[in-house]
Amino acid sequence: MDLKITGKFIQERRKAQGLTQAELAEKISVSEKTVSKWECGKGFPDTSLMLPLCEALAISANELLSGKLLGEKEYKTSAEEHLILLKNQQQKLYKHLFVIEWVLLGIAVLVLIGGGALIEYLPMPIGWQWTIMGVGLLILIVAIFFATRIERNVGFFECAHCKHKYIPSYGKMILAMHVGTTRYMKCPKCGKHSWSKKKLKDE
């Protein structure tokens, strides 16, 4: 997707609808500066604004992404291309989130170990020792919460028995035995317990 081409298309469609930048901005509840930014190719509408913008410009979301009006045949081909593009972008996002998950846990563990080392090698009142360990444990708990949230929300788990793909509840994930991102859980479809692998995409 070329932002310059898309921006020019937005401008052309706005003018075709007889709208000024200010009028279009008012219709979709954004600033005139935002519309100008899109038309100059310096940004792209947020997903929450795409449908209102398309409605105001009398185009489809597929045409907005393509930067031009589409015939029936072009529309189908373009739709498939955009679906592939969005899926690839989603996979990249999932991988980045997975990296963030492990970084969070790594930092939390290092903080806890560092706190233990301070207590071990530096003389300090017992109150300070409890405070340092308490802060370290709190950071670890918060990191585990966010890491579990990330792990649950990206991709899915696959049952080793029936290959059913599912997303478990937070409670089941936290309580489940696990090795890395593989967790021992009950499949909601076949009802059997197995080491369910975390997967980011269909394979």
Short overview:
By secondary structure, the chain is an alpha+beta fold. Helix content is 64%, strand content 9%.
Could you characterize what this model shows?
The protein is of the alpha+beta class. The chain has 3 domains: 68 residues, Orthogonal Bundle (434 Repressor (Amino-terminal Domain)); 69 residues; 44 residues, no CATH class. The protein contains 8 helices and 5 strands; from the N terminus they run αααααααββαβββ. Strands 2-1-5-4-3 form a 5-stranded antiparallel β-sheet. A hairpin with a 6-residue loop joins strand 1 and strand 2. The radius of gyration is 25 Å and the shape is flat. It starts with a helix and ends with a strand.
